[in-house]
Amino acid sequence: MHDHRGGGGHGAEHRHEAEHHHETEHHHGGEVSQTQLLTAALESLLVEKGLLSSDTIDQLVERYEKDIGPMIGARVVARAWTDPAYKQRLLSDSASALAELGIHMDNLVVVENTPAVHNAVVCTLCSCYPWAVLGLPPTWYKEPAYRSRMVIEPRAVLREFGLELDGTVEVRVWDSSAEQRYLVLPERPAGTEGMTEAELATLVSRDSMIGVARVAAPARAR
Amino acid sequence: MNGVHDMGGMHGFGPVRREEGSSPFHAPWEGRVFAMMTALTRGRHTFNLDEMRRAVESIPPAQYLASVYYALRLAALRILLVEKGVVTASEIDAMLHKLGREPERVRTPARRDDPALAAAILADIERPPKQPREAIAPRFRPGDRVVARNQHVQGHTRLPRYVRGKAGVIHRVHGVYDFPDTKAHGRGAHPAPVYSVRFAARDLWGDAASPRDSVYIDLWENYLDPA
Description:
heterodimer; A: 222 residues; mainly alpha; Nitrile Hydratase, Chain A; globular; B: 227 residues; Cyclin A, domain 1; SH3 type barrels; 2 domains; five-stranded antiparallel β-sheet; 9 helices
């Protein structure tokens, strides 16, 4: 354990073994991986030294597992769909529009999908993502396939997500390389005219706010 | 640095692998790593996010590509805790040795709670990050044509290879932000204007790209020259 790079040859959880580890950790609880060992060692030291506490770590995990997620962004989208003035504020000055809904984030840029323009978001250098409105990113967003391909062949990547775009549509890919974060305002699906804001929010998926999917029409409208 | 993390435009990584399930963590250790990383950057300011990214980028390429996201963050956490003098390498080794013989302690580490500390850190994390709002007049305006510098910085940078030397158009001025190239290495914040710059997909990738498409990327003024 003298590899100062930490994860080192000892600790790295390999990409394709991740699911396997997932199962063994949950269902057997027997063997402990080097990664689990290093995680526990750092946590024990930080807690011992009083820099963090066990409940700090517990509460942060719980907050991002349960409270902070795409349902927050979905509320913003549903408001924008039902209130044109709100939509304009969201597109031109997102910080104050978000604050109206009790969301505190001053570095969000909202980009609007239309029949002519399709926006999608990536972070080629790491994993930048608008946590405050979408929670933590899905694994594919952080992995090499999406990060490498989204800028060079966005239409092929979107097709893999089931989104076939007409050649006449303009595709804008937003590489979040600095402190700004991006949220896609998806198109409101047809057949939702009579729905309330709260009902609309339940339709809005995480992927549609990253820009890799459309919002599906509700079953009764199909 | 010209590392494997700078992967925009690379080939060979195969299809995007989607997965079911809504939890952001695959296993409990991933959540612990996330919480430690987040609490130490945005809560305690033990190190900043640029330093975190720099530490991740320093992981050897083969290991970087073979590791899952939270394993990279864990490795970076170890580097930075030692670098900042929070713990020593031998303290970590001693703890690994001790826990290696107590697998139960690995699954449930010794607890010490501090509700006031937890509340303070959570509040800090959810407060929007303070950015310098210095009155630095931007050199460029929307519509200006610019070229991303063809520079190959050895350390941390947020200027990816795929735009270097390419011409684009200023789309929007974002304001003034700390400069990651220096902040990641403890060489000061050096705030500078940041822009959204639009690059035509064909200027980046050639004729195979759609003439309608473009990539918008956020770049510090220090990365740009007038075209």
